[in-house]
Amino acid sequence: MDEYERWTGDADLVREFEQETRAALRWIDGYADLQGNGYIAYRRRNEETGLENQCWKDSWDSISYRDGRLPGFPRATCELQGYAYDAKMRGARLARRFWNDTAYADDLEQQATELKTRFNRDFWIEDGQYFALALDADGAQVDALSSNIGHLLWSGIVDADKAPAIAEHLLGPRLFSGWGVRTLAEGEARYNPIGYHVGTVWPFDNSFIAWGLRRYGYKAEAARIAAGLLDAADFYAGRLPEAFGGYERTQTKYPVQYPTACSPQAWSTGAPLLFLRTMLGLDPFGEHLIVDPALPVGIGRIELLDIPGRWGRMDAFGRGRVEVDGGTHLGPQLGDHTPASPGQQRSSA
User: Fold this and answer.
1) pLDDT band of 340, cuts 50, 70, 90
2) Quick check: 346 pLDDT over 70?
3) Which of 63, 71, 163, 283 has minimal Cβ neighbours within 10 Å of its Cβ?
4) Residue 326: predicted pLDDT
5) Helical H runs in the chain?
């Protein structure tokens, strides 16, 4: 709802669905916090046939410790906490600007701030410098390194001083194959480059990760991920599948097909659109659309014309200036990257 209004300026719809939006926010605390510890967790209702995992990685073995053990239930995966943080921050904006409820907005912001503080304490694995995949039923860290940490950048829940380490992991050799970020890092006990959520590359997952990197100022790193996935699309007649193998790019020279991947798949259909937004740096800010391109050199030039929104219609242009090398792991060029809130991407020449 918040994102829709930021692009369209349709305040009437925000007011029309105020009660439904409030109900969605209440669900986070009233239903999703199964243990009363302030974290969203899940367990299946039907113990015989229900899916064991209720996050987007819903296969039975997708959530594991580094040594391959599977945690008990309920499970609180890291990215769900980021989604909750994002929802509370966006809800606060809607409450303050459109529902005339400053007290509720202040309360949501306070909840989000407290969640962010607790999350960066409880999920952070100090010796590995990354966030745990989940907390188990006892509150212990499920310590596998996974692509989920990229969703945390997307949500904004990551403390700024931890972002460089996360970016380095995402573009490092254990997670980044050259074609994209693997769902599970190479070297983890359950890693399998052709396993559904334990080593494959998912285009939609990577599009979230790329925008998350962009949000924290890592424009070149986001461009590398976009370039890898778009290169992979050439081997699928321009249509990205649900997932493909996580094999190292220098070993295969082509993305290895996942045997039962859906194609077409709606998530993967949306991924190039978010990559396009990421590479051009498109972000609504008040009545304006910010354009801050960071395109891979191989793309050449992109022109996106007549972009509709609260600004009327606008054109966006970008030239490929970011050097990328999908076959080698150079690591991100970590410098002074400042995270931006939604609607506050910084522009460059």
Assistant:
1) low
2) no
3) 71
4) 53
5) 2-8, 11-16, 18-30, 78-97, 102-122, 148-155, 163-170, 203-215, 219-233, 249-252, 266-280
Question: Please, is 124 exposed, middle or buried when counting C-beta atoms within 10 Å of its C-beta (0-12, 13-18, 19+)?
Answer: middle
For the chain, what is the domain count?
Answer: 1
**Encoding tokens for residue 179?**
């074609």
Residue 329 has pLDDT above 50, yes or no: no
Q: What is the CATH number of the domain that holds 106?
A: 1.50.10.10
Burial class (CB in 10 A: 0-12, 13-18, 19+), 63: buried
- What are 261-300's pLDDT values in tens digits? 999 999 999 999 999 999 999 999 999 999 999 999 989 9
**Token pair for 348:** 């460059």
Amino acid in position 218: Y
Q: What is the pTM of this model?
A: 0.92
Asked, for residue 155, whether it belongs to a domain, the answer is no
Residue 211 forms part of a structural domain: no
| Domain span holding position 124 | 1-144
Q: Is residue 330 part of a domain?
A: no
CA dist 71 and 139 (Å) reads 11
- Alpha-carbon 180 to chain mean position: 13
Residue 336 has pLDDT above 90, yes or no: no
